[in-house]
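Researcher: Good morning. I'm working through a list of sequences from a screen, and I'd like to move beyond sequence-only analysis. For each chain I'm collecting a predicted structure so we can compare shapes side by side. This is the next one on the list. No need for commentary yet; just the structure.
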Amino acid sequence: MTTTEAVEVPQFVEQKVRRTPERVALDDGESHHSFGEFNARANRVVRKLSARRRAVTLEVDS
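Model: Good morning. Structure tokens for this chain:
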């Protein structure tokens, strides 16, 4: 992936998980989570929402 490619957030995370699952994805100054952890948590949320037949939409504030 180059810096000029447009990639959706889920695809970006999946690429990072494949390449460097241990790399820090989220850091709030007190705790941090790897791309692998972030992806696993996101997948659990999606499965729970899907089981409830809810639409799953990701919104990111910039």
